[in-house]
Amino acid sequence: MSEYLSDKPKKLIIKDKNGNIKNYQEFEHNDNGDPTYYKKVENERTTVELIYEYEYDEIGRKKVTKIADLITDNITVMEYEY
Question: Rounded distance, CA 26 to CA 45, Å?
Answer without folding.
Answer: 13
